[in-house]
Amino acid sequence: MAREHWLRSRNCGTTNRSGEPRDFLQLPGAEPWPLVNPEITWRSEEKIVVWDGCLSFLSIFMQVERHREIVVRYQDLRGEWKEFAASEERNLSELLQHEIDHLDGILAIDRIADMRTMCTREEFERRYRAHSPYAVAATQS
Ligand SMILES: [Zn+2]
Q: Is 99 considered catalytic here?
């Protein structure tokens, strides 16, 4: 899953607002991208429904509702504030919403679009993976 692009460093001293270690976003073929104290400052009204899974409960998949585009404000490793606009490209908007939610104690399951879509990993692979653009992108990792 795209979730695995995220490396959570537990060795560095800097923490985010909830006292957790800072996060590094790692996209395929790119350098690790540190996001310190990330915060979503703008959300598009338009929403999308995507398949999501999580390293916190690896065997369960579900459809969740996300904003199509967002703007994230964060600090780099030197403490400078930056802003980044994320769209559906490379699932970045969805990915960032998922991970920033974690910092606030919100899990994908809290954003579930329809309870009936919750399924096991096996069921997802068998019934949905072929039709899921998100899953297709994730298999490239
Ligand atoms: Zn997660």
A: yes
Residue 115 φ/ψ, nearest 5 degrees? -55, -30
Ligand 1 centre distance from Cα of residue 122 (Å): 19
Q: What is the pTM of this model?
A: 0.75
Closest CA to 112 of 39, 50, 67: 50
Pick the CATH number of 2-138 from 1.20.1290.10, 3.90.45.10, 3.40.50.300, 2.40.50.100: 3.90.45.10
Structure tokens at 131: 């039709």
- Pick the catalytic residue from 4, 39, 88, 99: 99
Q: Are residues 117 and 70 in contact, defined by beta-carbon separation less than 8 angstroms?
A: no
* CA 13 to ligand 1 center in whole angstroms: 22
Model confidence over 56-100: pLDDT tens digits? Answer: 787 889 999 999 999 999 988 888 999 999 998 878 899 899 988
